[in-house]
Every structure is written in structure tokens, then in C-alpha cells.
């Protein structure tokens, strides 16, 4: 059975979980033994990072590499389109998630861990920055109803919990994640996907608990 090493608050782990669930694969989800970066964990996943996937002799890290591996080893249902241009668009949007969108959400983590008061103006600036990052998606997605046409792809695996976490953090700090009409429509479709909804719920509860370790905010 596949071993999937993850933390529930991580959106990178969530994207792998969603793909595993969509493909109907059997797996055991585990925390990295002795924590990520530990010698024990590196003996299983050499990079020592999460998410990690152990499948037979393969010990993989990097969420996008894991998704590509799953697509090649368990090709049905397909989460990459057949057309080369659409496959490239999926990969472009995945890269944008990791380099632009997710970092705008993760920017909240440092002040939260530092115990910065929820009333501090820095959070309002972070909400604005996050909204600006999401605004970049509006002209890049089709939302017809999914990001790349009529079929669920790896893009939905990547973005579902990130949208959720962005909304959650904005609400916690008295703001709102403003989305354009296409992004709003896409977000509604992602929430209707049962496997995505499961990971959204897992991530939301984990983030609520994680934030509560450092500061007290409204849920």
C-alpha cells in the first residue's frame, strides 16, 4: 500500500491527497516519523520534506512530481488533458499556484507564529496582497466549469484547499478574499467535488487548530 506522509494544514499535502482520492488509490496517510527533516524520515523520503510518497521502491517528494507520478502509474481517471496545449496550461497554472498564489497565503504564517495581534494592520495588507495574487487568475482560467475546460484536472487538486485557506485566513483577520466572477464560479465548482471537499474540511480544521496555538482569533 502507498504510504503518504503529510501534515493536515499543508495545502501541498492536500493537493496530493485529492489526487489519490480522485484516482481511488489505497494509501495510508501518516505524519513523517520524528518530524520532517529527521534522519528516520529521510531514510524513507530522502529529501526529508512533505508531502512524501512511498510506493514500492519509489520514495518521492515535491507535490507536483508526485502528481505526475500518480498520473503515469494510475492513469485512470485522467487528470491531465489529452491536447498538448491544454496539458501545458495545466502545468502553467500549477506553477503559478506554487510560486504566486500559495506564497501569498503562506505570508500569513510568519506573523501568526510570532503571535502578532489579530488587530495588527499587517494582516489587512496581507489580505490585499492575497487578493491581488488571486486576481491574476481571472484571465488565465476558463471556469467552464473547471480551470481548463469541462474536465477536472490536476489544477483543481492544487487550488481547492488553497482557495479555502485563503478565504479562512481573510475571514479570521476581519477581511474578505475578493474574487472575480470566473474565480468565484470556479471556486463553487471545486467545493462541489466530493474528494476536494473532504480535503478542504481536513485542512480547515487543521488550520483552525494551528492558528490557535499562537493567537486567539474568530474561527
Q: What does this molecule look like?
A:
The N and C termini lie far apart (36 Å). Helices cover 55% and strands 7% of the residues. It has a four-stranded mixed beta sheet, with helices on one face. The chain is α+β, with helices and mostly antiparallel strands and 219 residues long. It has helices at 11-22, 39-42, 63-73, 84-106, 109-113, 121-135, 154-172, 181-192, 194-212, and strands spanning 2-5, 27-30, 52-55, 58-61. A hairpin with a 2-residue loop joins strand 3 and strand 4 (58-61). Helix 1 (11-22) runs antiparallel to helix 9 (194-212). The chain contains nine helices and four strands. The chain has two domains: 2-73, Glutaredoxin (3-Layer(aba) Sandwich); 84-212, Glutathione S-transferase Yfyf (Class Pi), Chain A, domain 2, CATH 1.20.1050. The longest helix has 23 residues, at 84-106.
Describe how the helices and strands are arranged:
Elements: E1 2-5, H1 11-22, E2 27-30, H2 39-42, E3 52-55, E4 58-61, H3 63-73, H4 84-106, H5 109-113, H6 121-135, H7 154-172, H8 181-192, H9 194-212
Parallel strand pairs: 1-2
Antiparallel strand pairs: 1-3, 3-4
Helix pairs in contact: 1-3, 1-7, 1-9, 4-6, 4-7, 7-9
Element order: H for helix, E for strand? EHEHEEHHHHHHH
Radius of gyration: 17 Å
* Total E-strand runs: 4
Please describe the biggest sheet, giving its number of strands, its sense, and whether it closes into a barrel: 4 strands, mixed
State the end-to-end distance.
36 Å
Q: How many domains make up the 3D coordinates?
A: 2
Mean pLDDT: 96
> Which percent bin holds the helix content?
40-55%
Low-confidence stretches: none
- Going across the major beta sheet, what is the strand order? 2-1-3-4
Structural class: alpha+beta
- Kindly report the oligomeric state of this protein: single chain
Q: Remind me, CATH topology of the largest domain?
A: Glutathione S-transferase Yfyf (Class Pi), Chain A, domain 2
Query: Which CATH architecture of the largest domain would you pick?
Result: Up-down Bundle
**CATH class category label of the largest domain:** Mainly Alpha
Taken from the alpha-carbon principal axes, the silhouette is globular
